[in-house]
Amino acid sequence: MTDVIKVAVLGAAGRMGSEAVKAINSAADLELVAALGSGDPLESLEGTGADIVVDLTVPSVSEANVRYAVEHGMHAVVGTTGWDEEKLQRLRDLLDEHPETGVLIAPNFAIGAVLAGKFAAAASRYFESVEVIELHHPNKLDAPSGTARHTAQLIAEARREAGVAPSPDATESDPEGSRGAVIEDVHVHAVRLRGLVAHEEILLGDTGQQLSIRHDSFDRVSFMPGVLLGVRRVGSAPGLTHGLDGYLELD
Ligand SMILES: NC(=O)C1=CN([C@@H]2O[C@H](COP(=O)(O)OP(=O)(O)OC[C@H]3O[C@@H](n4cnc5c(N)ncnc54)[C@H](O)[C@@H]3O)[C@@H](O)[C@H]2O)C=CC1
Ligand SMILES: O=C(O)C1=N[C@H](C(=O)O)C[C@H](O)C1
């Protein structure tokens, strides 16, 4: 019989954390050994024997949580947003000092969202224009979403490699910022609407045609297979993996 993986969830009372607790409790090969909320010190992890920390908290604390895990010999699976290039580089530097440890930073755990990003990047080489729209519930703290940022970066990278120019745009005046955020030359628009969960649409346009690639998470259970995949894989994937696609055979 293979060993059971011991898992600690940070942000366990949150929307994602509470789903993750249920998913881990339902998996025969995983054991939930700690479920921490905002009042609980990280030191409560001591003595739990946790192999993996799952971070589903808020952007302001996620980096410190992951550093603590790595420095205490635990792998980490991270869904929390806010991991910009500076934070990622600091994490790579830390992992260089802990070469056995794995960290997965997953902007989106839903397989459909991962595929939408990959498909959009591939398609964006063949279209003159591309823009990203993300749509979420109004309780979301950050905008644009981590997923939309990641998608824009994948698109920008694919277009750079293919020598595609930035999308044409004749806008001369936009005092209210109607054209959205610009992430590596890709415009990203954020909608917050009661009733929504997590949605992303990538619009690709060229003369006489448009391609739309859309993903909808209607329920947070959509993220759980990805969380469980991360938990099962991170211990055998040392270093930093940015994006769940790093654990999938998609290329
Ligand atoms: N990667 C993915 O697939 C997904 C990522 N997310 C991201 O995950 C994060 C959490 O999202 P939600 O669950 O919707 O938010 P939420 O606000 O419902 O949950 C966050 C929880 O973290 C707790 N918390 C805050 N500081 C803490 C600390 N120091 N230690 C432990 N717990 C702490 C809060 O009290 C709260 O219960 C966000 O950054 C969100 O964007 C959300 C959905 C999917
Ligand atoms: O806050 C959310 O809800 C979500 N956050 C992640 C993001 O910012 O991309 C993932 C998903 O979109 C849901």
Instruction: Write the element-wise H/E pattern from the N-terminal end onward.
Output: EHEEHEHEHEHEEEEHE
CATH class of the largest domain: Alpha Beta
CATH superfamily of the largest domain: NAD(P)-binding Rossmann-like Domain
- Rg over C-alpha atoms, rounded to the nearest angstrom: 19 Å
How many discrete domains?
2
The name CATH uses for the topology of the largest domain is: Rossmann fold
Give an account of the 3D structure.
It is found in: Cytoplasm. The chain has about 250 residues and is of the alpha/beta class. It has 2 domains: about 5-105 and about 220-245, Rossmann fold, CATH 3.40.50.720; about 110-215, Dihydrodipicolinate Reductase, domain 2 (2-Layer Sandwich). The protein has 6 helices and 11 strands. It has helices at about 15-25, 60-70, 85-95, 110-125, 145-160, 225-235, and strands at about 5-10, 30-35, 50-55, 75-80, 100-105, 130-135, 180-185, 185-190, 200-205, 210-215, 240. A 6-stranded parallel sheet has the order 2-1-3-4-5-11, with helices on both faces. Helix 2 runs parallel beside helix 3 and helix 4 (about 110-125) runs parallel beside helix 5 (about 145-160). The two termini are about 35 Å apart. The model has no long low-confidence stretch (mean pLDDT about 95).
